[in-house]
């Protein structure tokens, strides 16, 4: 099992590419914050201003969440217009050699406590892949997926319990 993850980054346009660099060019599985960014910059990734992630809609979501004293998913209340969709992105892939891969990227929850890390960068919680059975990418409230190791649990139920993907997902969810 190969894995790479980054968290707490704000100057990388595509953190998932930095996660791949961690997997392919370091002995580590996860890097965070400034260290993760510097690692990525040293390998050619572009530094961007954190403002590129700010939009009027996201700011409105933040103000509404603060007013309610709530923490909400990055896509809660997002418009249904296909051109306006944003938030968590998940992908699973099967290459020509039969290798499975999974990736999850998110801007995180709106109005979360500073320092909070969700499930997306945690292998086995927000994403997991093994060539024996399945590739999984999760989206939703990360704390639930972290506590359940949801992505890994789906794979384990398929590998060791003989469940189908639908059955494993139903049991975990």
Describe the structure.
The mean pLDDT is 90. This protein has 173 residues and is α+β, with helices and mostly antiparallel strands. The longest helix has 13 residues, at 56-68. Strand 3 and strand 4 form a beta hairpin. The chain has a two-stranded parallel ribbon. A two-stranded antiparallel ribbon has the order 3-4. The chain has a two-stranded antiparallel sheet with strand order 5-6. It contains six helices and six strands. 35% of the residues lie in helices and 15% in strands. The active site is at residue 88. Keywords: Autocatalytic cleavage, Hydrolase, Protease.
Strand order of the largest sheet: 1-2
The arrangement of helices and strands along the chain is EHEHHEEEEHHH
Q: Estimate percent helicity.
A: 25-40%
Separation, N- and C-terminal Cα atoms: 24 Å
Instruction: Determine the strand fraction and express it as a percent band.
Output: 15-25%
User: The CATH topology of the largest domain, please?
Assistant: Glutamine Phosphoribosylpyrophosphate, subunit 1, domain 1
Structural class computed from helices and strand pairing? alpha+beta
Radius of gyration: 17 Å
Instruction: Provide the number of structural domains.
Output: 2
- The CATH architecture classification of the largest domain is 4-Layer Sandwich
The top-level CATH class of the largest domain is Alpha Beta
Name given to the CATH homologous superfamily of the largest domain = (Glycosyl)asparaginase
**Overall 3D shape:** globular
The average pLDDT score comes to: 90
Main pleated sheet: 2 strands, parallel
Number of helices: 6
Low-pLDDT windows of residues: none
């Amino acid at each position: 099992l190969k894995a790479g993850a980054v968290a707490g980054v704000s100057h990388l346009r595509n953190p998932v590419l930095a996660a791949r660099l961690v997997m392919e060019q370091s002995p580590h599985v996860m890097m965070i914050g400034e260290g993760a960014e510097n690692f990525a910059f040293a390998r050619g990734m572009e530094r961007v201003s954190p403002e590129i992630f700010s939009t009027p809609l996201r700011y409105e979501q933040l103000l509404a969440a603060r007013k309610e004293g709530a923490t909400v998913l990055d896509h809660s209340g997002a418009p249904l217009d296909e051109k306006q969709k944003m938030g968590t992105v998940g992908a699973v892939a099967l290459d020509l050699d039969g290798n499975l891969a999974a990736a999850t990227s998110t801007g995180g929850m709106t109005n979360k406590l500073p320092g909070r890390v969700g499930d997306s960068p945690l292998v086995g919680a927000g994403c997991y892949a093994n060539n024996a059975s399945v590739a999984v990418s999760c989206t939703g409230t990360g704390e639930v997926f972290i506590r359940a190791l949801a992505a890994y649990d789906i794979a384990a139920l398929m590998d060791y319990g003989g469940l189908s993907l639908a059955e494993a997902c139903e049991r975990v969810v």
